[in-house]
Specification:
The chain is an alpha/beta fold. It has two domains: about 5-65 and about 160-315, Rossmann fold (3-Layer(aba) Sandwich); about 65-155, Rossmann fold, CATH 3.40.50.1100. The protein is built from 13 helices and ten strands. The termini are far apart.
C-alpha cells in the first residue's frame, strides 16, 4: 500500500527529532538507557535472533514515563494535569511525572480498570476517578472546566511521542544491528515516537506495530487513512486496547509504520510464559505483544528487535496452561 511516507517532501508526522535528541538528557534518568540485549535462551525457543528492549525496570514498570515526563515538564508548576487512561499505565506515568514536576494529577479510568494500576496511580499522588461511559471524554470535560487544568492525550500530544522516541535512539546505539522492529500499539504514541527516529537514522529497518485482534482500531485506521471506531471485544490486553485512535496518531502511523499485525489473547499468554521462563520477567499481556507476534506471524528479518513495554500484570493473567 502507499502511505504518506511514500510522498515527496517532509513526512507530515509533526514530531521533532531535535526534541527527541534533547529528551535523552532531560527525561528523568530512571527511565532512560533501559536494558537491551540478545538472550540465547529466548532466541533458542523462538528459533529467531531477537534483540529485546526491556522497558519494565523502572518505578512505573512501563515505558510510559518517558513521554509523560517530557510532556508534564513543559507545563506550569502548581497546575493540574488531567488524563484518561484505559489501560492504566499512562495514568501512572502522568501521576509520577506530575509529582516530580510540582503539579497535581487527576486520572479518569473506566469502572473496570485494574485495581493494581489504580492503586499505583493513587500511590503516586493522583486523584483517580472511576467512571462509566467514555473515560477520556469525562477527563476532557473536567479539564475544560478550569484554566489551570491541562488535558494530556496519549497519541495526540507530540511531546509524549517524542519522549517515547528516545527508545528508538537507544536501540540504534546497540552493537546488535537489526532488520525489523516490533512495537506494541495501542494509541500509537510509542511506535510513532520510535519510528520517527528510526526512519530518520536507519530507514531500511522495517517498523511493525502489534496490536490486539480484539481491538484493532489503530490497525484499521492505519490501513484506511482515517480514524475508525471499533467495538472492543473482551481481551486481557488492556494496554493495547482502544476504541478509536486520535487523528494525529493515524497521520503519524501512516507516515512512519511499515505494517501492522494482530494477535489474540492466547498468543499473548504464551509469550508471557515464554519471557518468564527465559528472561525472568513477568510481563503484562500488552507488554508481551512483540514476542507474541514473533510466535504468531512470519516476521521478516535476520535479527528482530522487540520492545517489551510493561509489567503491571494482575495475578489473574497468569493461568496454568
Amino acid at each position: 500500500m502507499t502511505t504518506t511516507r511514500d510522498l515527496p517532501g517532509q513526512p507530515p508526522h509533526g514530531l521533532d527529532l531535535d526534541r527527541i535528541a534533547a529528551a535523552r538528557t532531560t527525561i528523568d534518568p530512571v527511565f532512560l538507557n533501559s536494558p537491551q540485549y540478545v538472550d540465547d535462551h529466548l532466541c533458542g525457543r523462538l528459533g529467531r535472533r531477537v534483540l529485546t528492549k526491556i522497558e519494565t525496570l523502572n518505578p512505573l514498570r512501563s515505558f510510559k514515563g518517558r513521554g509523560a515526563d517530557l510532556y508534564v515538564g513543559g507545563l506550569p508548576a502548581g497546575h493540574t494535569v488531567v488524563c484518561g487512561s484505559g489501560g492504566g499505565n499512562f495514568g501512572q506515568a502522568i501521576a509520577y511525572a506530575a509529582r516530580r514536576h510540582g503539579l497535581h494529577a487527576e486520572v479518569f479510568v473506566p469502572a473496570g480498570t485494574s485495581e493494581l494500576k489504580t492503586r499505583r496511580m493513587a500511590a503516586f499522588g493522583a486523584r483517580v476517578h472511576r467512571v462509566d461511559g467514555p473515560h477520556k471524554q469525562h477527563a476532557a470535560d473536567h479539564a475544560a472546566a478550569a484554566p489551570d487544568r491541562h488535558f494530556a492525550v496519549d497519541g495526540r500530544d507530540a511531546a509524549i511521542s517524542e519522549g517515547a522516541g528516545t527508545i528508538g535512539a537507544e536501540l540504534l546505539d546497540s552493537a546488535t544491528p537489526f532488520d525489523t522492529l516490533l512495537v506494541p500499539v495501542g494509541d500509537g504514541a510509542l511506535i510513532t515516537g520510535i519510528a520517527a527516529w528510526i526512519k530518520a537514522h536507519a530507514p531500511r529497518v522495517r517498523v511493525i506495530g502489534v496490536t490486539s485482534a480484539a481491538a484493532p482500531a489503530l490497525e484499521r485506521s492505519w490501513r484506511t487513512g482515517r480514524p475508525h471506531t471499533v467495538q472492543q471485544r473482551p481481551t486481557i490486553a488492556a494496554g493495547i486496547s482502544i476504541r478509536r485512535p486520535e487523528p494525529e496518531a493515524v497521520t503519524r502511523t501512516r507516515a512512519l509504520v511499515d505494517d501492522m499485525l494482530l494477535i489474540d489473547d492466547d498468543a499473548l499468554l504464551d509469550a508471557m510464559r515464554l519471557t518468564a521462563d527465559t528472561l525472568g520477567i513477568l510481563l503484562e499481556p500488552a507488554g508481551a505483544a512483540a514476542i507474541a507476534a514473533i510466535t504468531a506471524h512470519d516476521v521478516p528479518g535476520d535479527t528482530i528487535a522487540a520492545v517489551l513495554t510493561g509489567a503491571n500484570a494482575d495475578p489473574a493473567h497468569y493461568r496454568t496452561p
